[in-house]
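Tokens in:
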């Protein structure tokens, strides 16, 4: 495991489990950490856990990109949660039972669920209800 991966794990442990860490911000390759956090969909969670003192060690170009990325994910999460709510309402209205998979359902394991980056909405429906679902989506214009 390289130093960047260790830093990522330390900060993730601190964020999710409140694990004390020997994290040394002065010795961090911040661009590498940002890239790895981005690859693992952890930029929002890690940005939130960094103290003001730790953020002072981040080079301006990395800090600006990381903060912009965090704001994007916050807005994207809000949009996806709204769309998920609308989809679940549509399913309930036509008596189709569903289960939320991955993304927002796993967010409950985060100290702050809004910090779980969402990329899409995954719903599971019974195979026998798929045709009914597609018909309802076409009728309402929700074909995504």
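Residues out:
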């Amino acid at each position: 495991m390289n130093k960047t991966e260790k830093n990522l794990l330390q900060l993730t442990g601190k964020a999710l489990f409140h694990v004390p860490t020997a994290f040394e911000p002065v010795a961090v390759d911040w661009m590498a950490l940002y890239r790895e956090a981005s690859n693992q969909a952890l930029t929002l969670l890690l940005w939130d856990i960094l103290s003001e003192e730790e953020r002072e060690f981040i080079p301006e170009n990395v800090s600006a990109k990381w903060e912009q990325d965090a704001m994007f994910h916050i807005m994207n999460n809000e949009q996806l949660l709204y769309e998920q709510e609308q989809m679940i309402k549509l399913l309930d209205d036509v008596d189709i039972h569903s289960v939320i998979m991955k993304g927002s359902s796993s967010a409950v394991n985060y100290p702050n669920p809004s910090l779980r980056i969402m990329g899409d909405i995954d719903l599971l429906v019974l195979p026998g209800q798929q045709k009914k679902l597609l018909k309802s989506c076409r009728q309402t214009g929700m074909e995504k």
